[in-house]
């Protein structure tokens, strides 16, 4: 396991990855972090500060200078971000101006830590500086990748935190993560083990909190290792899926054990959120050029069924990633994250134009991906693009249902899809369109956004080619929160509006929606645990990941203008 961790450290970036890992390690070493790295903020040469006992049990101030990769003579003193200027700045600036009064009398330990090694050519410089600059209360230590890996194994991957079976699951996941068809079963089994917390016990509440914080720290490390392996093997899709499941199951454990208000638990979970946001940015950056290029995704798939699956998966990814960045950026007042969300909305708009197949869904449950995409377009003020897409979807669905070909089938079976496209004499067409979430979902979207012509076409389809189809919508209820972050909530909770009939005109549908919001049993949008905690984007990720239909309240609440505030 130490070899795996050592290799993982070598993959980390100094900013945003190595510095995000260290606080978890320091906490397990009984060191209390005092600061976290901030990009663009002058910190007096210190990347991370902490307070805690040294090896002799003396309470000390720990100051960390973090670097990435192997350290040679060129890294010592050739540029402002080199090691020596940072060490000088610690003595000249940080210790004079940035130390709290209660820490000024503490001995100081300065740690130069790197994910690589200290080359022999620089070791004499390090030792010489330490001997010459060291004062009575300042000592210097040098942690290379092997030292950091050993500490991680000792404190974060103990037999208690990660027992032998869990280590085996992690190794199996790393061995298979590069395979496109790998379903991450071993990593999910590892998550199940780490998040299987004991029932709350008031007599040992403090101990249980420490154990759960440690479990989340171990989950964070395991996720980071898996994601770095996946990135190195050029399979960021598996990294994104793993980070989604980690967020959802992690939140489910926190919610179930009533830890949503615990600050330590919240801080640990936010680190998982940060990793998801980082991985989602990497994924988006990787696919962005393909989404802007005409039919670029088609180059990777010979079969139209596989191509359609992937195109709508990309729409769902773009929608959930963009919404997550937008809502998290608004909540944290991070303008850069909000700008990134707008860029994802722009790319989604381009994708719909460069890949015409985005107008022809193949599964009925792809209404989930479509709704996520429409929501992002509206959140980023692209309502006209959303209306144009709805018109295209309505035109194609009208044609497909009337000719009995290429319509979205009501099952999620790829075998059924292949049979539908290739073996038309062997299938039961009525069975494949026996039910539909797609038609009522798109009809309501058309009414909300004012795409009245598209709405009329969908009504025509419903009354003609789909007169025997059971159209339905699903609304969450008070029980849904117990299921939505663990699996498909639709099977265990909620209220189905079935059969759902479509009024003849879009205006009548708008009146029906207004009535739903004021008079029906589902008039009040369910306040989910994630939304109450300021993490509403988890609900959108859960819809995409577990294929749970989106709550219609998200688009029903406002008929003329959708905004992120409508979700809070």
Topology:
Layout: H1 2-11, H2 14-28, E1 32-33, E2 48-53, E3 59-67, H3 74-77, H4 83-97, E4 108-114, H5 120-133, E5 138-143, H6 145-155, H7 164-176, H8 185-194, H9 205-232, H10 236-256, H11 263-292, H12 304-332, H13 335-354, H14 367-379, H15 383-403, H16 414-422, H17 429-432, E6 435-436, H18 438-449, H19 452-463, E7 470-471, E8 473-475, E9 495-497, H20 506-519, H21 529-532, H22 537-546, H23 553-556
Parallel strand pairs: 3-4, 4-5, 6-7
Antiparallel strand pairs: 1-2, 2-3, 8-9
Helix pairs in contact: 1-6, 1-9, 2-9, 2-11, 7-8, 8-10, 9-10, 9-11, 10-11, 10-22, 11-12, 11-13, 12-13, 12-14, 12-22, 15-18, 15-19, 18-19, 18-20
Question: Tags for this entry?
Answer:
alpha/beta, Restriction Endonuclease, 5-stranded mixed β-sheet, two-stranded parallel sheet, 568 residues, 2 domains, 23 helices
Structure, described:
The protein has 568 residues and is of the alpha/beta class. The protein has 2 domains: 2-156, Restriction Endonuclease, CATH 3.40.91; 169-567, no CATH class. The protein has 23 helices and 9 strands. The chain has helices at 2-11, 14-28, 74-77, 83-97, 120-133, 145-155, 164-176, 185-194, 205-232, 236-256, 263-292, 304-332, 335-354, 367-379, 383-403, 414-422, 429-432, 438-449, 452-463, 506-519, 529-532, 537-546, 553-556, and strands at residues 32-33, 48-53, 59-67, 108-114, 138-143, 435-436, 470-471, 473-475, 495-497. Strands 1-2-3-4-5 form a 5-stranded mixed sheet, with helices on both faces. Helix 12 packs antiparallel against helix 13 (335-354). The longest helix has 30 residues, at 263-292. It is elongated, with a radius of gyration of 27 Å. The two termini are 43 Å apart. 44% of the residues are buried. The mean pLDDT is 89.
């Amino acid at each position: 396991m130490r070899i795996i961790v050592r290799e993982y450290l070598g993959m980390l970036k100094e900013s945003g990855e190595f510095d995000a890992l260290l606080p978890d390690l320091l906490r397990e070493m009984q060191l209390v972090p005092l600061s976290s790295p901030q990009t663009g903020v002058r910190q007096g040469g210190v990347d991370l500060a902490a307070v805690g006992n040294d090896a002799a049990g003396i309470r000390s101030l720990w100051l960390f200078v973090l670097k990435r990769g192997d350290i040679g003579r060129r890294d010592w003193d050739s540029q402002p971000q080199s090691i020596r200027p940072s060490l000088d700045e610690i003595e000249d600036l940080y210790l004079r101006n940035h130390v709290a009064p209660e820490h000024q009398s503490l001995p100081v330990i300065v740690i130069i830590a790197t994910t690589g090694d200290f080359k022999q050519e620089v070791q004499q410089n390090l030792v010489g500086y330490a001997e010459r600059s060291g004062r009575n209360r300042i000592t210097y230590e040098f942690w290379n990748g092997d030292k950091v890996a050993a500490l991680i194994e000792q404190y974060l991957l103990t037999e208690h935190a990660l027992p032998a079976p869990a280590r085996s699951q992690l190794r199996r996941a790393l061995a298979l993560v590069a395979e496109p068809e790998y379903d991450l079963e071993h990593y999910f089994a590892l998550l199940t083990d780490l998040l299987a917390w004991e029932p709350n016990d008031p007599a040992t509440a403090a101990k249980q909190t420490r154990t759960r914080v440690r479990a989340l720290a171990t989950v964070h490390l395991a996720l980071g290792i898996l994601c770095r392996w996946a990135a190195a093997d050029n399979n960021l899709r598996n990294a994104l899926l793993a980070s989604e499941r980690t967020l959802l199951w992690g939140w489910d454990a926190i919610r179930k054990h009533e830890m949503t208000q615990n600050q330590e638990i919240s801080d640990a979970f936010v680190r998982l959120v940060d990793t998801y946001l980082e991985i989602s940015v990497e994924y988006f950056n990787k696919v962005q050029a393909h989404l802007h290029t005409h039919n670029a995704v088609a180059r990777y798939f010979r079969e139209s069924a596989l191509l359609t699956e992937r195109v709508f998966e990309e729409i769902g990814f773009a929608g959930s990633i963009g919404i997550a960045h937008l809502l998290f950026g608004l909540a944290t007042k991070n303008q850069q994250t909000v700008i990134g969300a707008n860029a994802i909305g722009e790319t989604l708009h381009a994708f719909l134009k460069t890949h015409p197949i985005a107008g022809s869904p193949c599964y009925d449950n792809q209404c989930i991906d479509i709704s996520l995409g429409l929501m992002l377009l509206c959140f980023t003020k692209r309502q006209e693009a959303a209306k144009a897409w709805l018109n295209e979807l309505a035109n194609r669905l009208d044609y497909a249902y009337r000719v009995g070909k290429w319509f979205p089938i009501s099952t999620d079976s790829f075998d059924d899809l292949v049979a539908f496209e290739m073996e038309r004499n062997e299938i039961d067409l009525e069975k494949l369109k026996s039910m539909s979430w797609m038609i009522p979902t798109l009809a309501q979207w058309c009414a909300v956004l004012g795409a009245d012509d598209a709405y009329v076409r969908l009504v025509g389809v419903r009354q003609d080619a789909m007169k025997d189809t059971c159209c339905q919508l699903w609304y969450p209820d008070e029980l849904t929160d117990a299921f939505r972050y663990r699996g498909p909530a639709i099977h265990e909770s909620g209220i189905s509006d079935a059969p759902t009939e479509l009024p003849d005109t879009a205006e009548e549908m708008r009146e029906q929606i207004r009535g739903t919001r004021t008079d029906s049993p589902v008039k009040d949008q369910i306040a989910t645990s994630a939304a109450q905690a300021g993490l509403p984007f988890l609900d959108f990720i859960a819809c995409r990941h577990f294929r749970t239909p989106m709550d219609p309240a998200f688009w029903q609440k406002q008929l003329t203008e959708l905004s992120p505030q409508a979700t809070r």
